[in-house]
Amino acid sequence: MQQFTGTKTVKACKMSRKQAEEIIGRKMRADSDEIEDEHGYLVRYPDGYTSWSPLKTFEEAYRLSETHVDRMLIEKEEVEKRYLAGRKFSFSADYSHLTEAQKDLLRKQLDQMEAYLYTLTRRIELEVDVAANMCVGNKKLMDPVDENCRPAEPLRNQHE
Asked: Which is nearest to 125 in space by CA: 112, 139, 136?
């Protein structure tokens, strides 16, 4: 089989399987009457199809994206994973098999990802500061950066 990666945006609300079955008008499982109720989410897809998803399955697949800050946090997490994977690769045995041109481009790519990641981090921090000034609460969510938005050592060392 081939590997596929998908991304979709859905509307959802927390709801037990039995409540969802009543709303949707069908059983979510063939053995639904014999097993205990489960926590999960009622899900409406962009095409209007409505279904139910178990809590763990849903929360592994979806992140809250209601606000622009939610979406920036998702983007930061995705970019950070790719950046750290690239850094880790650059210390692997497979890296030594690349041509010098490939190594140079990978280094440039990682540098650009790092700069983007920290610009995004700073934007999120500013949004959090604005929210804190509106009495939402102040919590430092990101790794520290210097005045030039360069990464702090803790993140740089996560490649190992």
From this structure: 139
Q: What are phi and psi of 54, to 5 degrees?
A: -60, 150
Q: What's the number of CA atoms in the CB half-sphere (13 Å) around residue 62? A: 23
Instruction: Find where tokens 């994206």 sit.
Output: 65
Residues whose CB is less than 8 angstroms from the CB of residue 141 and which lie 6 or more positions away in sequence, other chains included: 73, 124, 125, 128
β-bridge partners, 52: 42
Q: What is the pLDDT of residues 76-87, one digit of tens each?
A: 999 999 999 999
Domain segments of the chain: what residues?
11-61, 68-159
Instruction: Specify the length of the chain in residues.
Output: 160
* pTM for this prediction: 0.69
